[in-house]
Automatic annotation (TrEMBL):
<dbReference type="InterPro" id="IPR036890">
    <property type="entry name" value="HATPase_C_sf"/>
</dbReference>
<keyword id="KW-0418">Kinase</keyword>
<dbReference type="Pfam" id="PF02518">
    <property type="entry name" value="HATPase_c"/>
</dbReference>
<keyword id="KW-0812">Transmembrane</keyword>
<keyword id="KW-0472">Membrane</keyword>
<dbReference type="GO" id="GO:0004673">
    <property type="term" value="F:protein histidine kinase activity"/>
</dbReference>
<dbReference type="InterPro" id="IPR003594">
    <property type="entry name" value="HATPase_dom"/>
</dbReference>
<keyword id="KW-0808">Transferase</keyword>
<dbReference type="InterPro" id="IPR050482">
    <property type="entry name" value="Sensor_HK_TwoCompSys"/>
</dbReference>
<feature type="transmembrane region" description="Helical">
    <location>
        <begin position="12"/>
        <end position="33"/>
    </location>
</feature>
<feature type="domain" description="Histidine kinase/HSP90-like ATPase">
    <location>
        <begin position="170"/>
        <end position="264"/>
    </location>
</feature>
<keyword id="KW-0902">Two-component regulatory system</keyword>
<keyword id="KW-1133">Transmembrane helix</keyword>
<protein>
    <recommendedName>
        <fullName>histidine kinase</fullName>
        <ecNumber>2.7.13.3</ecNumber>
    </recommendedName>
</protein>
<dbReference type="GO" id="GO:0000160">
    <property type="term" value="P:phosphorelay signal transduction system"/>
</dbReference>
Length: 273
């Protein structure tokens, strides 16, 4: 009788141990599976991000090549045509009646302005020129061009000891600024543009503010995502390539403030012009 009870207890104990062992094995297998699945998902996310970064960098490289080509075409062909127009007007002027000379002189003046604008545009599109003069000088040229239009009051302030950054950083920064300023011209209805550049060893901060009509930032970001447009989302992606934070604060009737923070900027020993 005792032997039978002992055998039953032993069977229960062994069965319990086997069940517990099986449960532990199942739990461990589920845990291992979930961990492997999580790692796989992380790897997929990292691969997508890496692919996205590579694709964006390729797009930017193609864009720079296209802009360089347009810059050279403007300089070589359009500037040449404007020069010919100016020469022809100069030849026509002495033979023209008195009542037409004023119009011809005004046309010559407009042709000279057009030539000046073409040269400035060609320079701003040319990557090599931007790398040569540096980001700060290129941005100042862009802002001065807006000031010359007399549509805007332009204010530029700089703090800290100015330094040059890597060519890639300067080109992407300048293209970001061009896009921001282009949005100001197209949509903001502003009269004043204030730009601040703050240099410190560990952080570069760029701020562009306008007194325009402003807009709903959340709505603009939502529409950028819905329409898959190349607006604010694209600017943020570009900023991420140079490890920068892109922030925008705006509201209806309150103007817009754009801030780009670049921690530990990649500096070079290129002298500031």
């Amino acid at each position: 009788m005792q032997t039978s009870i002992d055998a039953t207890l032993l069977t229960i104990i062994i069965s319990t141990v086997l069940v517990l062992g099986l449960c532990i094995a199942i739990i461990y297998a589920l845990f291992f599976y979930q961990r492997k699945k999580f790692r796989h998902q992380q790897e997929l996310i990292e691969m997508r991000e890496a692919f996205g970064q590579t694709l964006l960098q390729s797009k930017l490289a193609i864009q720079e090549q296209t802009l360089d080509h347009i810059s050279k075409e403007l300089h070589a062909n359009f500037s040449h045509l404007v020069s010919l127009i100016n020469i022809n007007l100069s030849e026509i002027l002495p033979q023209s009646p008195e009542d037409q000379r004023e119009s011809i002189l005004e046309t010559k003046s407009l042709a000279k302005q057009l030539m000046s604008e073409l040269k400035a545009l060609s320079a701003n599109l040319n990557t090599d020129h931007i790398i040569h003069i540096g980001f700060v000088k290129a941005l100042e040229n862009e802002l001065n061009r807006l000031a010359k239009s007399r549509r805007y009051e332009v204010v530029i302030t700089k703090t800290g000891e100015e330094y040059r950054m890597s060519a890639e950083h300067e080109i992407i920064l300048f293209r970001l600024c061009q896009e921001v300023l282009n949005n100001v011209v197209k949509y903001a209805k502003a009269t004043k543009i204030s730009t601040s550049l703050s240099f410190s060893p560990d952080l570069f901060i760029l701020t562009i503010a306008d007194d325009g009509s402003g807009f709903d930032v959340k709505e603009a970001l939502y529409q950028s995502g819905e329409k898959q447009s190349t607006g604010l989302l694209n600017i943020r992606k570009r900023a991420s390539i140079i490890n920068s934070e892109f922030n925008i604060v705006s509201g209806e009737g309150k103007g817009t403030v754009v801030t780009i923070n670049m921690p530990n900027p990649e500096r070079t020993n290129i002298p500031v012009l």
